Amino acid sequence: MPHITVLDQSTIDRIAAGEVIERPASVVKELLENAIDAKATAVTVEIRDGGISFIRVTDNGCGIPKDEVALAFLRHSTSKIRSAEDLFVVASLGFRGEALSSIAAVSQVELITKTAEQISGVRYVIEGGRERSSEEIGAPDGTTFIVRNLFFNTPARQKFLKTAQTEGAHVAALVEKIAMSHPDISIRFIQNNQNKLHTSGNHNLKDIIYTVFGREIASNLLPVEYEQEILQIRGFAGKPVIARSNRNFENYYINGRYVKSTVIARAIEEAYRPFMMQHKYPFVLLHIRLEPEYLDVNVHPTKMELRFRNEEQIYQMVCRALSDALAHKELIPQVEMDHADAREKPAAADASQKKAKAEKLPESRPEPFEVKRRESLERGKSFADGLQGERNENAARAGEYDSRSVYQIVAEKQAEYDTGEPLPARQESRPRKASGPAQMAQTAEEPVKKPADAAPPKQLDLFEEKLLEPQSRLRHKLIGQLFDTYWLVEFNDHLYIIDQHAAHEKVLYERTMKTLKNREYTSQMVDPPIILTLGSEEQVLLGKYMKYFSEIGFEIEPFGGKEYAVRAVPDNLFSIARKDLLMEMLDDLSDDILKSGAESIYDRVATMSCKAAVKGNHRLSPGEADHLIDELLTLDNPYACPHGRPTIISMSKYELEKKFKRIV
């Protein structure tokens, strides 16, 4: 029989470290959060070999007093709280007092720190939880942690680490997330002696989004501003056009802490549900400020999880904040042609294709006209070479030249000679391009602007005149129906394509929701009744929501055993009421634990009513199409059906002219 013994301190420390330190990113997280808590305005994170062999975190914060350095590495030593009551109002990122102890237990740590009040700093070395040295040293204000050889004394843990490249990617992702949580702090990330990230600390969150995610994301953002008595939300919501297939772009911070929360995630996805297709997830970056007494942050050692005092209230507020940001915005996706195909085609491939074509051509004696044309081209090229050289010399002196090369000019003249007709005049001259010193001066002073005709198409600007506005309705030009499914509308240099099925679904959905909320529904008897056989969980759900089913026109009663009889349904569901649809609606209710009962029922009934919408491959008259567009004008969100598919897409005149080579 095994005997009970007390573990030695080294084993205790390693077990505790295993709860906090999983990989190099865990070390960086703890040290970076400590730097932020120390009121640093600038932090540099440097790693090598993915952080396995070397991590350095330097900040300009308040530093650690000399007599508290050794104390900082003891378990449960902290400057963040003083009693258990403080856990309910903690405002710092760290508070457990386990980070430094856990890091020191499984690595070799060197600390250099100095406070503003001290003349000199301290250099402290601790390895595997044991102090090695402590000495005075000259140092700037702030703290530097150097962590070497992670898990050097626990090789079993080291075997579970991934490659240096993978571990480095985890560190990079973590630093980016913390940088976005504190736009007021300048954060630099260096990986293997290369700068990977540097934020300015200028409080501009959109600048950081651009740095981390790039231009496409930054140019498709909607501001989010929402404030209630206990909660404040600031940040950005991405337009549906930049949706992704996973939740990696759902970023939210609560009181400056990067966390994962099922409540927040579901609120985000519920707000976006009318705008997106299933299995697509939005880009959001939200800073949420919540009174500390409404939070329990002491849930998990890594502090990545937390609990809310009133989950449903928080859910509703986050959902409302995003819904308000998305509502009444022109979110029509624009069809764009792929401009990259021609540019990405390798020159070598072009040459080989031309050579192959030339080899396949049969040899034939050139016609007299061809001989004349070829000689003319050769003379033109010779003239062009001389003129180009002279032109470049003049340009170097004058500092500018026409971006249209002389070869293009000669080619145009030659085409005129061959055809006997002048080419159409170009609509717009291209901008002049600087050369030599003038080019350098222009680059230094201001960015080179793109020509107006080269501006890429983009999603409609929110301040442009909207298609679905009453004042725009009179200028819609209804062209006709395509494939008995899509209606074509011309408006303001754009072609709009409306999916009649998706549009009608949305009209029915919002009409039904309004009817249910205003209690304007009536019942329709079903004969014979629909018999449902329910399992134990389904019976519990039905009992929970029975009151709301009855309120909107359902008549459901026990039919013996596990069976229930549906004797009446709301009149708008009469034509589509089937056993499988009713069972599907009941099953879906199990996912809506954070919604009120009435709201969940309304949503499911309205979604079911969409199945009565006019289908594709069904010919509508122009009058019916006009009426459908008129109904879209009255909706809060006419741009996506209840399942997230777009009701309208557009294509600009610019894109069409590119397709027909009117613009090159």
Question: Could you characterize what this model shows?
Answer:
The structure is a single chain. The strands form 6 sheets. The chain has an 8-stranded mixed β-sheet with strand order 5-4-3-6-2-1-7-8. A 5-stranded mixed β-sheet has the order 9-10-13-11-12, with helices on both faces. The chain contains 21 helices and 24 strands. It is 38% helix and 21% strand. The protein has 3 domains: 9-198, Histidine kinase-like ATPase, C-terminal domain (Heat Shock Protein 90), CATH 3.30.565; 205-326, Ribosomal Protein S5, domain 2 (2-Layer Sandwich); 467-664, 2-Layer Sandwich (formyl-coa transferase, domain 3), CATH 3.30.1540.20. It is globular. The protein is an alpha+beta fold and 664 residues long. 29% of the residues are buried.
List the keywords:
single chain; 38% helix; 5-stranded mixed beta sheet; formyl-coa transferase, domain 3; Ribosomal Protein S5, domain 2; Heat Shock Protein 90; alpha+beta; 8-stranded mixed beta sheet; 664 residues
Could you say which overall geometry the principal axes of the C-alpha atoms support?
A: globular
The Cα radius of gyration reads 34 Å
Uncertain parts: 80-89, 339-373, 393-463
* CATH homologous superfamily classification of the largest domain: MutL, C-terminal domain, dimerisation subdomain
Number of strands: 24
Strand content: 15-25%
Helix fraction bin: 25-40%
Going by helix content, strand content and strand pairing, the class is alpha+beta
How are the strands ordered across the major sheet?
5-4-3-6-2-1-7-8
The biggest sheet amounts to: 8 strands, mixed
Helical element count?
Answer: 21
CATH topology of the largest domain: formyl-coa transferase, domain 3
- The CATH class of the largest domain: Alpha Beta
Instruction: Give the name of the CATH architecture of the largest domain.
Output: 2-Layer Sandwich
How would you name the oligomeric state of the polypeptide chains in this document? single chain
**What's the number of structural domains?**
3
Arithmetic mean pLDDT: 75
First-last Cα distance: 86 Å
